[in-house]
Amino acid sequence: MQIAHEHVRVRVPATSANLGPGFDAFGLALGVWDDLTVRAVAGPTRVVVEGEGNGNLPDGEGHLVVKAVRSGLEMAGAPQAGLELLCRNAIPHGRGMGSSAAAVVAGLIAARGLISDPAALDDATVLALATELEGHPDNAAPALLGGATTAWVDDEGPHAVEVPLAPGLRPTVLVPDARLTTSSARRVLPAQVPHADAAHNVARAALLVLALGGRMDLLLAGTEDRLHQGYRSDVMRPTAEAVRALREAGWPAVVSGAGPSVLVLERLDRPTAETLSRHGWRVLDPGVAAEGAHLVSP
């Protein structure tokens, strides 16, 4: 295997995981994009970040995209090289919108574009490597495939399938100023949950598939959760209060991934959006990204 192209460009979407009851399984690609250019060079690795993460991310081998590119090249049996990255980031960091999964998937797709035989890094291999780097596939799957996905892991590794989406689905994302690491959000989860809560989420996750496919009348019931959001409320109190208030008003609101952003699986009306904006939330109307990470012309 050889490095056949010196220069590739990748676009990768933001994602929201869980969607309420689908903990560590469901994901949705959102129309907020990171745009990365990767060059294979003879010199040392250098990373330039514009936009989100500027000044806060490693500028060399420690950058997550660089680690992912190297993982992909190693899996393909291709030689390593120095890398020059230009990352134009629009996905907020530490807000539950899949920024780390986007970086990993983008790096692996960049490696695919650099090598002489892209089939060595097919989607199944990329998902497996991304899951190894991320720890779970819920964000990596929609970042790779686009749209809505359900992902799971068995003895053969991670898998993902696309979930049919109604054309009219128009999500809203509420982004706070505060950040929260995924590890902090996971530390508060219990090792065991009541059987009744597990049964509740199984039923709601099944409803959610129907709702996403067109039964919009089921969105509110289909986004109810008892497995993770309540336990996380103490570490993201404004998020928990926003979700509660929106749901009481009839909006299908959930915590986006590990938070603290809020995902609403409908487009908010103007008065509600303006009220949230006045209370410090950045209101995004990103639409669904039908396409996942992909190579584009340099």
From TrEMBL:
Catalytic activity: L-homoserine + ATP = O-phospho-L-homoserine + ADP + H(+)
Entry's EC annotation: 2.7.1.39
Residues reported to bind ATP: P92, H93, G94, R95, G96, M97, G98, S99, S100, A101, A102
Family of the protein in this entry: Belongs to the GHMP kinase family. Homoserine kinase subfamily.
Alphabetical UniProt keywords: Amino-acid biosynthesis, ATP-binding, Cytoplasm, Kinase, Nucleotide-binding, Threonine biosynthesis, Transferase
Identification of the protein by name: Homoserine kinase
Ranges for domain GHMP kinase N-terminal: 64-147
Subcellular localization, as worded in the UniProt entry: Cytoplasm
Keyword Hydrolase: no
Pathway named in the protein's UniProt entry: Amino-acid biosynthesis; L-threonine biosynthesis; L-threonine from L-aspartate: step 4/5
Domain of life, source organism: Bacteria
Record flagged with keyword Cell membrane: no
Family matches, as InterPro entries: GHMP_kinase_C_sf (IPR036554), GHMP_kinase_N_dom (IPR006204), GHMP_knse_ATP-bd_CS (IPR006203), Homoserine_kinase (IPR000870), Ribosomal_Su5_D2-typ_SF (IPR020568), Ribsml_uS5_D2-typ_fold_subgr (IPR014721)
Entry function: Catalyzes the ATP-dependent phosphorylation of L-homoserine to L-homoserine phosphate.
GO MF terms, alphabetically ordered: kinase activity
Top EC group: transferase
